[in-house]
Amino acid sequence: xxxxxxxxxxxxxxxxxxxxxxxxxxxxxxxxxxxxxxxxxxxxxxxxxxxxxxxxxxxxxxxxxxxxxxxxxxxxxxxxxxxxxxxxxxxxxxxxxxxxxxxxxxxxxxxxxxxxxxxxxxxxxxxxxxxxxxxxxxxxxxxxxxxxxxxxxxxxxxxxxxxxxxxxxxxxxxxxxxxxxxxxxxxxxxxxxxxxxxxxxxxxxxxxxxxxxxxxxxxxxxxxxxxxxxxxxxxxxxxxxxxxxxxxxxxxxxxxxxxxxxxxxxxxxxxxxxxxxxxxxxxxxxxxxxxxxxxxxxxxxxxxxxxxxxxxxxxxxxxxxxxxxxxxxxxxxxxxxxxxxxxxxxxxxxxxxxxxxxxxxxxxxxxxxxxxxxxxxxxxxxxxxxxxxxxxxxxxxxxxxxxxxxxxxxxxxxxxxxxxxxxxxxxxxxxxxxxxxxxxxxxxxxxxxxxxxxxxxxxxxxxxxxxxxxxxxxxxxxxxxxxxxxxxxxxxxxxxxxxxxxxxxxxxxxxxxxxxxxxxxxxxxxxxxxxxxxxxxxxxxxxxxxxxxxxxxxxxxxxxxxxxxxxxxxxxxxxxxxxxxxxxxxxxxxxxxxxxxxxxxxxxxxxxxxxxxxxxxxxxxxxxxxxxxxxxxxxxxxxxxxxxxxxxxxxxxxxxxxxxxxxxxxxxxxxxxxxxxxxxxxxxxxxxxxxx
Length: 692
Known about the structure:
With 692 residues, this protein is α/β, with parallel strands linked by helices. 33% of the residues lie in helices and 18% in strands. The protein is globular and about 75 Å long.
């Protein structure tokens, strides 16, 4: 269903709201950035909203690798981006901001961050300079200049970010400490926003779309409450300066608060949708909204019940950029689900590029496609292992039209994902497996469960290619012991319920991933007293901020002690207890003994690679990979023996202990196996080009 936004006709009600995937180069949206947004435009959305956000001033250091909207040189790149998107009958806008205190002075040009108050934002830990009158005058002008550049670049409009950034810091009594005409009363706190909008309108005119993303209820004592938020919405709506409101609720200054604002896995879907609907009833301009609307049913509900005019499905489109196309083609069951892992946002907030936990093509559209073409040469493929790596390899091979046989030792697919899904709030992770099994079924992939594949089982299939994706088992060998410890268990034993827990246990976590913290949660729930130890200076360093939040919340005021910067050196039996020898990397003279009923290790995965090495002598490539071709997603062609008939590869944890995304990425790189012609066509298409 189309929607008329002022003069702009949007062909349906689905957009991606502004977000910063950190794909730009030198502060400009170059080919990789364009290819990312192009894929979503080709997938059928009405509008792609770029940048989260583009910074308007030099003293808004780009903590999220933001686009530099304050530079004239950005205009040609914006023009290339907008022309490419418009060619797909898709509209495009960009979000502008001054980050205020939501950044760090040690980025960009090392200018001090600034805000309407003196207190630091906990997430970025920088104490801001209190904004002066000349700063305000300058930044208002810089907003207008940036908007003018975006109009010159062909954007359909701009959106201002007022959600925890400088505009929001002025609006909130929690962060505005000014005693000038820009502080105190609601009218004064809103003055900066109105002045910015007025300068933008003066420079871009009335025919250019201007919107604002704002928090209309901070849900915190002393902050903007719903009543005041409704007044702000009404003032903005009646001002004639904005064409829509993008409604949000909550604050974003700490990881725990951010997860309430942008919910993660296990939290309620679309928690602020009804609130957006309340705002819509009170004002007379369109309402946009996005907050964990990750499935089509919820989006459909939001529109059909008149709660919003445009629905944002941003994380959903990181998982599957072709949601709209699949809806139109009545293939909703083929939509790759967003499982809420929030790997994308956690990476952004850690200063890295956005990646989807189970779509390795996201952000790599120049390397390989989301829609896989059949291969001109049909092969027999054997995959051993039905975890995320093996299933992705089987899925891609099936999509390319190969005959695929999978062996799996367990009765069900999923590998380690089945363990992580033991937590109620992480059960959506099974979507990674369920979707792949469904897609494999459509391509007639043959599965053999409850089969511990041996050398001859695989060879009897007479394959052209064998892919070993057997994963691994928990490592019981410490660096210091050089052999498996006999008196300890692993985190897997806690999650699986295979071991009855005693009262006083040690969980030693050197991997720093979900498994360690998840096992601590389980152990506490079972009544154990836990010491959670790591040799690192931080706990669970591989679990990033938003995902670490529910663990720390659930373990507050519980029987758990955190021991940081302590290394487990050895474990031995002493009477009816276990004696642990503990040291520290930070002091070679620091050493002591401690007694526990049980010790559990989370020390990574030891690859199950016996089958792989038994097959190496019979393979054409002897297991060797050309890394240059591997990195480029090109077909492997190493031949070490002309007498042998199959290539042999291994992927995922069967190679080394990594994570879900790495396992799936291995499969995409290794076994897409396109021809050079296919690669060239994909890259041309991703750039919006045609072959001459």
